[in-house]
Design a protein that fits this description.
single chain; mainly alpha; 2 domains; globular; Rna Polymerase Sigma Factor, Chain: A; Arc Repressor Mutant, subunit A; 182 residues
Length: 182
């Protein structure tokens, strides 16, 4: 299939696309602010993968290579957006005693958690994804993001606090709704 893709055979390219589209879209959704941005990143990631298929050494897993391309495309999109906006936003980052316990998070649906991750500020969202989901360490994240290791640690901590606050707000809202219903 890879040889056929390298020769530009559309059927093989479609097979490669079908094999990796769901994994890659999942990655894009975690890094993007919304579905439309995720689709753009996904398209760019596939374009880059097909263009650079000759550079895949065939020593490592193709899926890992495709994942790395997708993460890199998502980070490039982040840098483009950051350069365009170039503005600071202040967030209410109060450390509170959480209303929820970890069991609530574990019971939360994947789609619901994904929506909360997408609501995080882009920098926090990217560091959270790279550390908690992709498994990079903070030194690697700092290098990828063009920041320091300390900044990565700080953004990850803040991302966790914001996620916890969003989850707590939902739990409080649900509890109020239940009390009103009774």
């Amino acid at each position: 299939m890879i040889k056929a893709c390298r020769k530009g055979i559309r059927q093989a390219q479609r097979e490669l696309y079908d094999r990796f589209v769901y994994m890659m879209k999942g990655i894009c959704l975690r890094y993007a602010a919304d579905e439309m941005e995720a689709e753009d990143v996904l398209q760019e990631a596939f374009i880059r993968a097909f263009k650079n298929l000759d550079s895949w050494s065939e020593k490592g897993a193709l899926g890992a290579w495709m994942r790395r391309i997708t993460v890199n495309m998502a980070l490039e999109q982040y840098r483009k957006n950051k350069a365009q906006k170039n503005m600071a936003v202040v967030y209410d980052m109060k450390e509170t005693n959480p209303v929820t316990d970890d069991g609530v998070i574990e019971k939360m649906g994947l789609d619901e958690l994904l929506k909360k991750i997408q609501k995080l500020p882009a920098g926090f969202r990217n560091v959270f994804n790279l550390y908690a989901i992709e498994g990079y360490n903070h030194a690697e994240i700092g290098e990828l993001m063009g920041t320091s290791e300390g900044t990565s640690k700080s953004q990850y901590s803040r991302a966790r606090i914001l996620l916890r606050q969003m989850i707590d707000e939902d739990v409080i809202r649900e509890n109020k709704n239940l009390n009103y219903a009774n």
